Automatic annotation (TrEMBL):
Domain Glycosyl transferase family residue range list: 181-341
Pfam families for this protein: Glycos_transf_1
Glycoprotein found in the keyword field: no
Protein name, per record: Glycosyl transferases group 1
One GO process term, biological-process aspect: lipopolysaccharide biosynthetic process
GO molecular function, one term: glycosyltransferase activity
Keywords noted in UniProt: Transferase
Lineage, opening ranks: Bacteria, Pseudomonadati, Planctomycetota, Planctomycetia, Pirellulales
Highest taxon of source: Bacteria
Length: 386
């Protein structure tokens, strides 16, 4: 029996990758038990695939008081994104996928956009995350640079692994479907696929939209997928409205995983303005569907994307607009970047291969057994500052 813990997964790329993992899992060779949120898409998929599962309403209470009673000591548990189930560190063999990239880039002021109190609260949560992640017995990262940084922080080298990102099976299947959202073909459409969040820096979009409109009036439209219930998204949309940029900007709200492929297929390009990412689904989605992708220039993005994207500095709207305009008005540039993206994607596994790689790593950690407390005590994130 292997426990698959999806309790930390709520939405976005984590949900998409979790659904892809379950969809490509061979259910005939091993028995699995899924932990998931009550009423979630993961629960609905478990019902459809007839996977034994438990849906949880109160995650914290369940993890603290209910989880470890369900399974025998030594039970392996794979948490695809997040820290181990609370209270199980001495009972289960925990393998975790780590996507909290900001924990491994202390030089980046990830919460610098917040006020003093807000920043302190986030830093406190990060401290708790650091301690929780240390309690695992094996760690999986999405990029080689993050895996290497974890080793520098003292994570046991033989228990650190890298499984590259793959384009979701759900996205591939839906890419040929007609999108329910139609865009006016008189403008080139650039998609920013991501929830509204200061790290994603959608607040920089109004300046970029404005510069594009000045550079080539009526030629571009940027489409965002922010949930308008968030204060951050509302501030961005208010600025768009105040500056009379609504004709060049559209927010269509959150997109269901099964609709991502058709949506990406219907646009001309994609963009990602994040301060920092572990790895973004936007990378593999743009490469798979041959869309030029404009990405923040940083060590994290260059390690992941190589020459498969167009690098920009989103804090320089004029230069960013120029780069977008020059690329999208040149068929040669579009071909060059999409072919380079396809070449990078060819080095990544398929969704089913990625699932097999996960299982191979899990079996290696099971063979190693629990990580000793002495080894865990040697993990020190402060080493990343030297």
């Amino acid at each position: 029996m292997m426990v698959l813990n999806f309790l930390p997964v709520a939405s976005g790329g984590g949900l998409q990758n979790s659904l892809s993992f379950l969809t490509t899992l061979d259910l005939t060779t091993r028995k699995y038990f899924v932990l998931c949120r009550s009423g979630s898409e993961i629960e609905r998929l478990c019902l459809k695939l007839e996977i034994e599962h438990l849906s949880v309403r109160n995650r914290v209470m369940f993890e603290m008081y209910g989880a470890k009673k369900l399974f025998a000591k030594g039970t392996p548990c794979f948490t695809i994104f997040g820290s181990p189930v609370l209270s199980t560190r001495d009972d289960w063999i925990n393998i975790c996928g780590v996507a909290f990239s900001n924990l491994f880039y202390p030089s980046i002021d990830f919460w610098g956009h917040l006020g003093r109190c807000g920043k302190m609260m986030k830093l406190l949560k990060d401290c708790l995350r650091k301690q929780a992640i240390k309690q695992a017995d094996g760690w999986i990262f999405e990029t080689g640079v993050l895996a290497e940084m974890s080793r520098k922080a003292g994570f046991p080298s033989n228990r650190v692994f890298c499984v590259p990102m793959a384009v979701s099976e759900i996205v591939v299947r839906s890419s040929d479907a007609a999108s329910s959202i139609r865009f006016d073909k008189s403008r080139r459409t650039i998609l920013y696929l991501g929830a509204g969040h200061p790290n994603k820096r959608q607040h920089l979009l109004p300046d970029i939209v404005d510069r594009l409109e000045r550079l080539a009036p009526g030629s571009y439209r940027i489409v965002a997928t922010m949930n308008e219930s968030s204060d951050y998204a509302r501030r961005v949309l208010t600025e768009i409205h105040t500056r009379k940029l609504s004709g060049s900007f559209e927010n269509i709200g959150p997109v269901a995983p099964e609709c991502v492929g058709s949506l990406v297929s219907s646009v001309d390009a994609m963009c990602l303005l994040s301060v920092l990412e572990s790895f973004s689904n936007n990378f593999v989605e743009s490469w798979a569907l041959k869309k030029p992708l404009f990405v923040t220039d940083g060590t994290w993005s260059r390690d992941a994307c190589h020459n498969g994207v167009v690098y920009i500095d989103p804090k320089k709207p004029s230069a960013t607009a120029d780069s977008i305009h020059q690329t999208l008005t040149s068929p040669e540039s579009i071909q060059r970047v999409t072919e380079a993206g396809s070449a990078v994607l060819a080095t990544h596994p398929s969704a089913s291969q990625k699932t097999k790689l996960y299982l191979e790593v899990i079996d290696k950690v099971i063979a190693l057994g629990p990580c000793s407390r002495i080894s865990k005590s040697q993990i020190d994130y402060g080493k990343l500052l030297t």
